[in-house]
Structure formats: structure tokens, C-alpha cells
């Protein structure tokens, strides 16, 4: 399609007129980032001026930045929890937002082990859809011809609940996939999925994965890109294929559908996809029956140009596995978002994973940045004067992200640590460093040091009756030896009476007790999503942690300031620990989890 030269973009030649307009929008927003930020804050404050929260700080009708910053504190979720609980319990007065709260988006757990509830309003769906609409126009600059095939994306909905006041509470992507914006999205030749909506929207994870994989196999020669939200999700899909290829090949050969697919709408939908194809069945069998699965993605889907997955932050641990399965295909990280807010996009999506940086789109929310010193112990108390505006951040420095949203979060600390890598026009570009205080993560779970400590304390009570105690411990997220990955916790025990030492049964129960102590996001991953494997305790011999300290000191650590790391990922340290293991124990059962939210 010929593109009007007036719509050409500094980012590159657009693939079509629709793309040209999207790229032009990105340019306008990033060129005028400060003015857009000023307008966004004014809009948020004007529309929400009569909310209980803003009236509490006596803003009056002021909508300017200086007044706002002088009167509003910087807050965390715990500060906002009383207001959120009132909304969850049914209070419909304008507490945080003048617009009605339409639902809650669930985020990673609180200190009490429950999911955070992030309030949202209906128009936020349009804002998220806007950001999604910018992704393919940027990708088309780097990968031509994506309109000539399809994307095999493994997308899933998760369980949702209702609060005591009747509002739905669910993950942000479940909200989006169930929205009319997603279900009735217009046809776009650059963004065609192999998976029908019925497969994506099936709440049973097995039925959803099975039918999405089956559709992907039937369309194998049309697939130009594979994706999932997180890298862990795509690896889980490959593992699913390893376990279920024989049944999938049977369905392809016979033109029938696995009787385990019981969802009526899904069965009806799949009837138009499933057909007998002996040649394809033979091919799937030949490829999947081999012991060697290296390059399996490009063997089965030979026209794949890239993998579309998040591999930043904790997901970086999956890069070697993805490279193994894909034969080294490019890994594209396209956008940066959370339950609280959608933030921005990667303007160079085909860059190396270590070079991924996201350009913050200034129209999404009002953004501030708290300078972060990695060598300083952080405090919940923050001097608001230290925060800087979007356009005033400095290249090379790290910041914690603070947001003010249309839905009613004001100067809210998201908990993400970002490093400024540069600017696109006047909008900064950030490398995602990590989630603040997170030690362990396999999928969407996030376990911090306090939570891990609490889990160890609770589990160690089971061995106290044997005259044993946990002297020291550390941990790591093992994503290489098992799929799905699992938590590994190293324990060094002090056993007073070796004859009466805790046995395998007791230590296995310790694993389960640790899992019971972890947050609901972790437990849902174990029970409902099958995205996390059983927790493992590796008991190391006495004196191991002293050897660990000696090693750290030999590398320059101060003996006076040395602290046992509660999470390790440095290969020599892990090799040292593993060489001292005397026994291994796994959780023997699933921890307790139900979708009902505790009041």
C-alpha cells in the first residue's frame, strides 16, 4: 500500500497508512513529553477534585504540578489499603476516582500474603488498547511481511473472584482478554492469531493450552511468530507439547478432538479447525518422538521470524532455554506494563535482550521518579522533594517509578527499579532493572526476603521437636532442571541428636509448610496454573555457609559487613552449595489455594 509521504516517520518507513498514523502519534507524544505530562496531571486532578482522597489534602481546584507535589504524599499499597478495602466492601462514593470503579486488577501479593487489588475504571481499557495498537506498527519497521501469516500466541485467562461488595477482581490480562475491546477487535492482517477467542477464553488451563497448540500445529506453515506474555509461559507451552504430542498427533490423524476438551463452546469452535491430516500427524510424530528437542520451534514452525516474550528482569533466566528450543531466534520484548498502569513500548523490539529499553508514553499516566541508590537500605519514608519529572531524569541513573493514574492512584510507588538509557525525543527510555525487594520469581510470582524468612520460620517448627533447627539458608529459582521451574532452598541444620534427626517425611512436610506460607500468587501458580513446580529443600552439610562466607571474603567482601545472601545465582556459589548437599526433599502435595478471596 502506498503511504502518504506526509505521514512518514523519523522511526522509519511505515508499512501502511494505519502504521504511519500510529508512528506519527508516538512522535507527537515523545516530542512534547513535558507538555503532555502537564496536561495529563491537570486532567486527572480536575476530574477527581471532589474525591474524598484529594479533598483530604486540600488541593482545592489546583491542577498544577507544584501545588500537587507540595500537598500529596508519596504512598505505597499499604497506605492505600483502607480506601481500597472500603471500595471492595461496596462503598460506591467517590473515594479515589470520580468515575465508578469498574473492577479490581489483581497484582502481586501484599505482606499478608494476599493479592493487591488495584482499582480501575472502564476507560482504562481504551488506554491499554491504544498502547497495544502501537506495537505492530513499530514491529513492522523491523520485520517485513508479518501480514502474510499468523502469530501463535499462548494467551490465557485466570480465575477471577468477586469482592464482598460485588466487584470483579482478576489479573489485568484476564480483564483485557474478556473485554469487548479484545473480543470484537477489528481484523488486522498484521495481527492475526492462530488461536480462536474461545480457546483463549477457556478458563481450564489444560483445555485452553491443548486447543491453542492444536490450532498452532494445523497452521504450522502460516506461523511467523510465537509468543506468550512471559518467557516462562512459552517454555511451559513447549513442555506441554513434549507431554501431549502423541494425543495431538492422534487428533490430527483422525480428525477428532481429545475427549478431555469438554467445554461446549470450545468443542463447537474447534469443529471448524480439526480435520484429518495424516501427513501432518506423521510429521508431528517424527519431530516430537526424537530425544533431541533442540531447535524444536523452528523445526515445527519453520517460518518463525522471532519470539515475542518478556525476557527482562526475572524472566532473563529463561533466555538460554528459549535459545535452545528455538535455535537462537530473536527475542522481542515489545511493551512495559503492570496491573497499576500500562507504561510504554520498546521502539527497537529486535534488539538483544540485554539492550531492551522501554520508551515511556507520557499520555498513559503522570510519571515521577524517585532516585534509587542500590547501596542504600530503602525506607518507606520518602522525601517528596526528591522526586523528578519524566523529562528531568538523567541517563545512567536508577529510579523507582511513581505514578498518578486516571483511575485514582496518586503518587503511588509501583516498586519497579528502572535505569535511564537515553531519550527518544524528550521522552526517556528505561532499562527494567528489577522489582524492588524481590528474591525469587518463576512466573508471575514474586517472593521477597521477608516472606521467604517467614516461610523458613514456619517450616522449621516441624523439626524443632527433633531437636533440630535451621542454622542458615539461601535459595534460588531453578528454571533449568525442571519445567515448570521451582524454588530451591538450601538448609544447613543443627541436629542435637543425630539418632533422632528429622527424616525424609518430615523434611518433605517442611517443603509443603514453606509453600503454605508463601503468597496466594505463588500458590495459584502451583495449584491452578501449573506454572510452578514443587518446592525443594536441599540439606547441606554442617559448615557449608562458613565456606560460603570464606569464598565471598576471598573475592573482596568485608568480613565485618558480610551477610548471607538469601538468594544466589552466581554459578561458583551454586556449585559450592550443590557439592555439599547431603539430602534433597520435595513438597509431597499441593498447597492450599482457592479462588475465593479472604475477607
Describe the structure.
This protein has 599 residues and is of the alpha+beta class. The mean pLDDT is 90. Helix 1 (17-31) crosses helix 6 (123-142) and helix 11 (231-254) packs parallel to helix 15 (319-326). 43% of the residues are buried. Residues 358-435 form the GH3 middle domain. Belongs to the IAA-amido conjugating enzyme family. InterPro entries: GH3, GH3_C, GH3_M. This is GH3-like hormone conjugating enzyme.
Summarize the SSE layout with pairings:
Layout lengths: L16 H15 L1 H15 L4 H5 L8 H7 L5 H12 L14 E7 L5 E6 L2 H20 L7 E5 L6 E2 L5 E4 H6 L2 H4 L13 H4 L4 H14 L4 E8 H24 L9 H7 L7 H11 L7 H5 L5 E5 L8 H8 L4 E2 L2 E3 L4 E4 L12 E3 L5 E6 L16 E2 L8 E7 L7 E13 L2 E9 L2 E3 L6 E2 H16 L3 E11 L7 E10 L8 H14 L2 H8 L8 E5 L3 H11 L16 H9 L1 E6 L13
Parallel strand pairs: 1-5, 3-6, 6-7, 7-8, 20-21
Antiparallel strand pairs: 1-2, 4-5, 9-10, 10-11, 11-16, 12-13, 12-14, 14-15, 15-16, 17-18, 19-20, 21-22
Helix pairs in contact: 1-6, 10-11, 11-13, 11-15, 16-17
Family: Belongs to the IAA-amido conjugating enzyme family.
Keywords: Ligase
Pfam families: GH3, GH3_C, GH3_M
